[in-house]
Amino acid sequence: MSKLAIKMTVNGTEIEAEAEPRMLLIHFLREDLNLTGPHIGCDTSHCGACTVDLNGKSVKSCTIFVGQADGADITTIEGMANADGSLHVLQDMFREHHGLQCGFCTPGMITRAHRLLQENPDPSDDEIRHGISGNLCRCTGYQNIVKAIRAAADQINAAKEAAE
Amino acid sequence: MISGSFEYHRPSTLDEAVGLLNQHGDDARVVAGGHSLIPMMKLRLANLDHLVDLQSIDSLRGVTEDGGNLVIGAMTTQNELIGNAVLAAKCPILAETSLQIADPQVRYCGTIGGNVANGDPGNDMPAVMQALDAVYLAQGPNGAREIAARDFYEGIFFTALEDNEIITAVRIPTPQGGHGHAYEKQKRKTGDYATAAAAVVLSLSGGNCTAASIALTNVGDTPLYATDASAALIGTAVDQGAVDNAVALAEGITNPAADTRGPVEFRTKIAGVMVRRAIARALSRAR
Known about the structure:
- The complex is a heterodimer of chains A (164) and B (287).
- Chain A is of the alpha+beta class and 164 residues long.
- Chain A contains 5 helices and 5 strands.
- In chain A, strands 2-1-5-3-4 form a 5-stranded mixed β-sheet, covered by helices on one side.
- In chain A, strand 3 and strand 4 (57-60) form a beta hairpin.
- In chain A, helix 2 crosses helix 5.
- Chain A is globular, with a radius of gyration of 16 Å.
- Chain B has 12 helices and 14 strands.
- In chain B, helix 10 (227-233) packs antiparallel against helix 11 (240-252) and helix 11 runs antiparallel to helix 12.
- Chain B has helices spanning 14-24, 37-42, 78-83, 85-90, 93-98, 104-109, 112-117, 125-131, 149-152, 227-233, 240-252, 264-285; strands spanning 7-9, 28-31, 50-53, 63-66, 69-73, 135-140, 143-148, 153-155, 158-159, 166-173, 180-186, 196-205, 208-217, 224-225.
- The N and C termini of chain B lie far apart (51 Å).
- In chain B, the strands form 4 sheets. Chain B has a 5-stranded antiparallel β-sheet. Chain B has a 4-stranded antiparallel β-sheet with strand order 11-12-13-14. A 3-stranded parallel β-sheet of chain B has the order 1-3-2, covered by helices on one side.
- Chain B has 287 residues and is an alpha+beta fold.
- Chains A and B meet through strand 4 of A and helix 2 and helix 6 of B.
């Protein structure tokens, strides 16, 4: 099978590459682009560890062929930090509130939480839980993840108000 | 898990897509959101030589209201169904159902066309489409045709759709204003298919039920339209006796598989419980 020519924007950088059509987006990101933040957890679209942002949607990159993402704008956890290298507020709040233990689910959790807050800047705890229902964590029991996302929302909203 | 090799196509028109299917026969499959097909390909339960991605065909997207019908493009995602203002006002069971499908990531990708065309009895939209008496619009090499949701499903992964046809839209007669609706689904966890689920749409006039339709998910080889159970509510005040009757009739048509979701008797009873709850909630919403 001939290779596909792939163009996409990943974390703000334009990428041109060739890939086999059957290559999954998660493998393309990890193996070809060396972006190993998105993890392979279940490889069956259940756990959400491979979640990345694709054209403004949270998607599980283990269930997307690279060709389907041709032309897309993708953000992985590697693209979340601020321009000066400091942590994104979600990353900071996950650290502050112990929103992780082993950390395996964290890149997926944070990229998913980022999209959730874009769509719903002031979510209730219940809305956060529904919003991250596609991301499994086997360590924390979710309590501190919800707290971290809640705290990040509060900080983002406070910064917005201060700017107005 | 890596799927078998295939050639990837991304046509920008429906004609081109149908042409590819017609050319390659059952060696080709269309992909919409891909969250049913791609896992099957990774498990090598689906093997195909040509994957035809429909994402660039703009005519397959969007929701319009047209002369008493709601027409929903096949590539409209579940997430878009949840957020659509026309559907929220005219046909809210679609958002209610979409919210019970899988999880947020899957709903950004999963489409109504894929959900209804897949033919897996675990898919949620088919029963809802049957309750709404929807029609599927299909396009093949010889033109367009229409297939009623109630006639579409033939067996597990067997439908009335030909290999060289694509579902382009679903057309739903706009439900009567003031209708009551509910989709009740029991599942073991987020992302699971239903142990059993029931869709109910009904209308009242002067306290009496003037129209009712009930359909069931994942308790047979196909979604099940419960003709007799639906009829059992019409002309009644939807009182205890009528509901008991409808529940018994609905349970009577189930034929669930015994699997990790439970034995046959359990899933049949859960189907009855889902019907009872869906009727109660639809009734509470009907005006």
